[in-house]
Amino acid sequence: MSEAHPYIPNSAPKIREGMLREIGARDVQALFADIPESIRKDSTLRLPGSRSEMETSVQVSGLLSTNVSTRDVVSFLGGGVWPHYVPAAVDEIVSRSEFITSYTPYQPEISQGMLQALFEYQSMVAELMGMEFANSSLYDWATALGEAARMASRVTGRDEFLVPHYVQPDRLRTLKTFCEPAGIEIVEIGQDRRTGSVLQDDLQRKVSSKVAGVYIENPSYLGFLEPNAKRIGEIAHEKGALFIIGADPVSLGLFASPGELNADIAVGEGQPLGNHMNYGGPLLGLFACRGDRLLRQMPGRLIGMTTTKDGSSKAFTMVLQTREQHIRREKASSNICTNEALCAVAAAAYLALMGPQGLERLCKNILANSSYAMRQLKKLDGLNVPQFEAQHFKEFTIGFDKTGLAASHVNAKLLQRGIQGGICLHDQFPELGQSALYCVTELHTRESIDRLVEAMKVILEGR
Amino acid sequence: MMPYRQAQWEEPLIIERSSEGQVGFSLPNTEAPPMNIPSELLRQIPPRLPELSETEVVRHYIRLSQENYGVDLGIYPLGSCTMKYNPKLLDRVVATTKLQDLHPLQDNESVQGILRIFYELSQWLAEIVGLSKVSLQPAAGAHGEFTGAMIMRAYHRKNGDLGKRDELIVPDSAHGTNPASAAMAGFKVVEIPSGEDGCVDVKALRSSLSPRTAGLMLTNPNTLGIFEADILEIARLVHEAGGLLYYDGANLNAILGKAKPGRMGFDIVHINIHKTFATPHGGGGPGSGPVAVTKELERFLPVPTVECAGDKYYLDFDRPDSIGKIRSFWGNSSVLVRAYAYILMMGQDGLEKVADISVLNANYLARKLSQVRGLELPYADKVRKHEFVLSAAKMAHETGVTAAHLSKRLLDFGIHAPTVYFPLIVDEALMIEPTETVSKQDLDEAVEAFSKASIEAYSTPDVVRDAPKNTAVSRIDEARASHPKTMKLTWRSNAQPS
Questions:
Q1: CATH of the domain at B132
Q2: Could you give the CA distance from residue B67 to residue B61 in angstroms, rounded to a whole number?
Q3: A407-416 and A446-461 helices, crossing angle to 10°
Q4: Do B347 and A305 touch (CB under 8 A)?
Q5: Are A359 and A250 in contact (CB under 8 A)?
Q6: ipTM attached to this prediction
Q7: What is the spatial distance between Cα B153 and Cα B214, in angstroms, rounded to a whole number?
Q8: pLDDT > 60? residue A385
């Protein structure tokens, strides 16, 4: 390797030596003489030697090319990260180097582009959720839920948080991690085994003056919608608890928004809005709320619209920073600093392209495809599809108990036919028996669904 | 110095561009879905989203991008943020369906490539920081801090000490995320003052250590850019008191291949991938904040960990002592793959060069800028690592031009401002980190810009105080932005419920 480096201009010997002379240093090593010798002596990195750009490109692409992607097979995986079409315009917009290579907009005058894009993102998320305010992103749905529980506890001064039974396991475990040090206890509320609806008598029993918040998901992790959401909110509010709804933002093109269902806080996963699955990250935590009392306790960065000092034009800047860690330190509403800004820009561009009509049509498209899949699978002898008597969106469960087959066995057989089956649910929810969660979106053509049904038929016949 | 003028589009809000009936999407035709959906499940009020053609949406965002400053436009010396150049190859290698279209719950056999990248990257990061095992899951530095603090919690719980050890010690020069993360993990924050030399005051540390000490959070080099030379003594004291040592990796760039936090005595380290390993910051994220720990603390890492048996890579969920989950799924993959490519390309020799030149650049710039009228370099006798902090107190006193004013004037010259008013221990602080990826010419132009602003401060101070003028907008009315009566957080509402 030559001494000059493509990303390190001053490594060129002549320049480096000149600079060293100017600061009166003998050599570069002299700049590290303040590090105790006993620490320095073991510091050599046992790493591969450097490679050219070309070699690196070949090696990394080569490794990635061994992956089998959801484009190479037909996949029915969802459950927290979902396959949706990402318009080319979205990828183009978030590839702009001015966006990608900028930092958090601490200097607003020179960062108006990112600030305006994030302000518009906040506006669109608030619209979608039917809430008054949205922040400019958290890490993902799971951490947004953790933050929501902590915020509910701060606002109400209470330390119990009620969560329905059918919650995505990662999300529940993350919630527990976030709540434990704050002394918040997670209490489970039952859901009807037949309809999936929250058991109101169980809720009534558990909601007390100790409860900070009641959380539901709509649609749920298992794809069914909650018909009694408003009533659940009323029960929470009667006891002075906050009502928190987690939602798939795509569903909100057609289905009732958290705001319409009287939620105080709304959370969700923004990945379906123009962000690729990327093996599960980065994701995009949606977080919205209403009312001044909640706003002041909100985690994460907020962008506001104001004017220039001379009043000549509109302008954007970070606001209410006194909630944040760089000002408030240990008293901050959250420790979050780096967030998912670029994913938020992707979501905003996606929503701008879709508009209200596009989102509604997308929902109907997904409903058409997923109900077609359910209809066709239902025809197969022994399958219980879906396991809940409810309206579903995008995802549904298949029960295999009557077939005598294990869901994992079905998946293995499907995989041999180039099909990635749904998430096996047995370990998470044993009461569902042998069961799997299937996800069908606008990307699933009728042919791909027919292939699944055909393969399933063969597997069932061969049992 | 090159003249600078940022685009000034006065781009309206995207909702103001909306006109009814326009669409920016196309979808395949499907049959009409069964719409026997109960009305209480349906949305009553459609969301007020813009209606625009694709052309208009793209133009809107491209115009906005032109009103945004990034590393690709010029020097970005934000202290402690390590705004280095992001090699273009990194963006290219992740723009593939073989990553973008991977679902995290796919069959293990189908994701061997990405798991191998995760595994090797973990090994490399452990080697770089001199510790035993790494979790790639945290989404950002602060998320890594929270994870690390939770690991401390789990360690003390395992020892039956959780109730007793409830204090985390943080120096007053620490990043704000440190105390915030410590508090989130349930610890009481004990702040200790810095000593005369800008480093940890070992005496103050000694007197804050007690049987209640859970640990100490530290960055080394510290936020002044000075290497904490007493680190071995500090580590000994904290360990003797029964506490753990946490390393905030924000400043790791300075010591790559020069010193390993593990060798200094740190037990837990988070690494800011988006700083040290050249992945783009994306206007505030996504980043990635892996956490490395000692052998003793491995059992507490979040689930799952990435493991290798023979030539098979897999995720290990069976870890009974783990702190649990800290997020959905396994990590910010597209950021991590970029870091993998970066480390592979740089190699051991390239990374050492990163440390060499980032430190050379910082010392060069510190020397030059400390000669600018009105600026002073506190603790001037100490060699700097990757960054340094200037004080503009003299200038503020003599001219009324503050660090904030000065930084706004730099924007006019096409130079991103330093971090201002941090760390809190320096009056009128300007925290400057040039990184290794700037040229000498960039540095000399920065010096010229500071000098020009200084001359203006002493001759025509209003020019500086009224800056910036060459940016998309002039000075912003921040008071109006945060005032309850005028605050606007969405295009619909004011803050106060009407």
A1: 3.40.640.10
A2: 10
A3: 120
A4: no
A5: yes
A6: 0.98
A7: 8
A8: yes
Tell me if A173 and B113 make a contact (CB, 8 A cut-off): no
Rounded to a whole number, what is the distance in Å from the CA of B221 to chain A's nearest CA?
10
pLDDT of residue B31: 85
Among the candidates B302, B327, B345, a domain finishes at B345
Q: Are strands A423-424 and B213-218 parallel, antiparallel or unpaired?
A: unpaired
Q: Choose the closest CB to B47 out of A309, A356, A371.
A: A356
| Residue B460, in any domain of the structure | yes
Based on the domain organization, do B262 and B150 belong to the same domain? yes
Asked if pLDDT for residue A123 goes beyond 50, the answer is yes
In the predicted model, is pLDDT for residue B498 greater than 50? no
Same domain, B300 and B392: no
Q: How confident is the model at residue A2 (pLDDT cuts 50, 70, 90)?
A: low
Interface mutation target, options B61, B199, B388, chain A, most CBs of A under 10 Å: B61
Residues B227 and B102 in one domain: yes
**B85 touching A (Cβ < 8 Å):** yes
Both B443 and B393 in one domain: the answer is: yes
- Give the closest-approach CA distance of B241 to chain A in angstroms: 22
**Domain boundary, last residue among B324, B345, B366:** B345
Q: What is the pLDDT of residues B446-478, one digit of tens each?
A: 999 999 999 999 999 999 999 999 999 999 999
Percent of chain B beyond pLDDT 70?
Answer: 99
pLDDT at B434: 98
Could you tell me the end-to-end alpha-carbon distance of chain A, in angstroms, rounded to an integer?
61
> Does the structure show a pLDDT above 80 at A1?
no
Maximum Cα–Cα distance for chain B, whole Å?
Answer: 78
Query: With an 8 Å Cβ cutoff, are B481 and A304 in contact?
Result: yes
Beta pairing class for A419-420 and A74-75: parallel
Query: What domain range is B148 assigned to?
Result: 91-345
* B190, B273, B345, best to mutate vs chain A, most A CBs in 10 Å: B345
Q: With cut-offs at 50, 70 and 90, classify the pLDDT of residue B30.
A: confident
Residue B180 falls inside a structural domain: yes
Contact A368 B45 (CB under 8 A): no
Buried b (16+ CB within 10 A) or exposed e, A116-144: bbbbbbbbbbbbbbbbbbbbbbbbbbbbb
Whether residue A43 and residue B107 make contact (CB cut-off 8 A), yes or no, is: no
| Residues listed for chain B | 498
Q: Which amino acid is at B24?
A: G
CB A431 within 8 A of CB A193: yes
Query: Cβ contact (<8 Å) for B96 and A61?
Result: yes
What letter represents residue A288's amino acid? A
Average pLDDT, chain B: 96
Q: Using one digit for the tens of pLDDT, what is the confidence trace for A275-323? A: 999 999 999 999 999 999 999 999 999 999 999 999 999 999 999 988 8
B326 with B375, same domain: the answer is no
On whether residue B214 sits in a domain, the answer given is yes
Mutate to test the interface with A, among B490, B493, B494, B496 (most CBs of A within 10 A): B490
Give B 203-262 residues with CB within 8 A of chain A: 226-227, 229, 231-232, 255-260
**Complete domains list, chain A, with CATH:** 74-82+356-461 (3.90.1150.10), 88-350 (3.40.640.10)
Nearest by CB to A61, from B23, B91, B93: name it: B93
